[in-house]
Write a structure and sequence with these properties.
By secondary structure, the protein is of the alpha/beta class. It has 9 helices and 15 strands. The structure holds NADPH dihydro-nicotinamide-adenine-dinucleotide phosphate. The site of NADPH dihydro-nicotinamide-adenine-dinucleotide phosphate has 32 residues, from helix 1, helix 2 and helix 3. One of its GO terms (molecular function) is oxidoreductase activity.
């Protein structure tokens, strides 16, 4: 099987190579999957660059998500031929991942692909789309409805942001998309964003409370932007904290929580329980318009992945990158 393998000599830098590897080098697991598609996420970019301390042992096969067909299974829940999706569980970090023609994982980590979502579409969504849906579900659980007002999406032209923008727009929300790249405005409007907020408007700290602007927010950026957004939330509004593309440090005050009842909701896609995963994938199959999904993707070969990872860390990619292993 063909695989992208990372290596790191003692004290040296991480290097990558595409190699033919024996199937018996796959890690232990209940289910062996013929991988059809994987993707490049921000976390993959960190792994490819050897950043973030995410990988503990080398050689390593990255790829935090994949979709494909079961080849063999020792678990009664899966049989050869079943279409499956994997995201999370630190696959691609501490366990070999999806940048290979085959993967072997625990049955508990898989979900069956929902009807109406083929492997390519499943990975066009991938970890980013799944996480965007978890964020939207959390906002809805806390009372967000389209009539409450504008919903902000930060890091909007990235993977999570693109899918969140498209789904929220399709659900009838007025989406305000934050981007640091004016050249992405047309793309974001094509996904349904009704207004564009320049990143610079939110990239510096403000007062503990500002005018009420947003009914909800899907935040892929964190840091100063998240603090600023919290101070602009409407009474009872919620922010789903998804990412840290702009920084992990959060310096804010409790004032928006105390005076406006603002909710800050943490989103963890990695260990989301099975029932929630199935619900989220069913909703993705239903709520993500396929013509919009097509606009978010760029197809890539395994050979192109290392360069795409470098580009992603420099904020030079947009939307979703789907890796074809079929
Ligand atoms: P992408 O790189 O595709 O998107 C991130 C976007 O954030 C960029 O496109 C850019 O959007 C914006 N951005 C980048 N750098 C900065 C900066 N310095 N300041 C402000 N905005 C910036 O990444 P993903 O969409 O894959 O992931 C987004 C975040 O979500 C990451 O931090 C990732 O680790 C996290 N994540 C968390 C998950 C969870 O389970 N909680 C699961 C999946 C992802 P623009 O150019 O439009 O401004």
């Amino acid at each position: 099987m063909k695989a992208l393998i990372l290596d790191k000599p003692d004290g040296g830098d991480v290097s990558s190579e595409i190699r033919e590897t024996a199937e018996d080098s796959l890690p232990d697991g209940d289910v062996t999957v013929a991988v059809e598609y994987s993707t490049v996420n921000y976390k993959d970019a960190l792994v490819l660059a050897g950043q973030g301390g995410l990988v503990k042992t080398y050689p390593h096969v990255p790829g935090i998500d994949f979709a494909g067909t079961v080849e063999t299974s020792s678990d009664e829940r899966y049989a050869p031929g079943d279409r499956v999706i994997l995201t999370g569980w630190r696959v691609g970090e501490i366990h070999w991942g999806g940048y290979a023609e085959k993967a072997r994982v625990k049955a508990d980590w898989l979900v069956p692909a929902p009807d109406g979502l083929d492997a390519r579409a499943a990975m066009a969504l991938g970890t980013a789309g799944f996480t965007a849906m978890l964020a939207i579900m959390a906002l809805e659980e806390h009372g967000l409805t389209p009539d409450r007002g504008e919903v902000l999406v930060t890091g909007a032209s990235g993977g999570v942001g693109s899918v969140a923008t498209a789904i929220l727009s399709r659900l009838g929300y007025h989406v305000a998309a934050v981007t640091g790249r004016p050249e992405q405005e047309e793309y974001l409007r094509s996904l349904g964003a009704r207004s564009i907020v320049p990143r610079s408007e939110l990239s510096e700290g403000g007062k503990p409370l500002e005018s009420e602007r947003w009914a909800g927010c899907v935040d892929a950026v964190g840091g100063t932007m998240l603090a600023r957004v919290l101070s602009q939330m409407k009474h009872g509004g919620s922010v789903a904290a998804v990412g840290l593309a702009g920084g992990s440090k959060l310096e804010t005050t409790v004032v928006p929580f105390l005076l406006r009842g603002v909710n800050l909701l943490g989103i963890d896609s990695v260990t989301a329980p099975y029932a929630k995963r199935v619900t989220a994938w069913d909703r993705l199959a239903r709520d993500m318009p396929s013509e919009l999904l097509e606009q978010t993707i760029r197809m890539a070969t395994l050979e192109e992945v290392p360069q795409i990872g470098r580009d992603m860390l420099q904020n030079k990619t947009h939307g979703r990158v789907v890796v074809d292993l079929s």
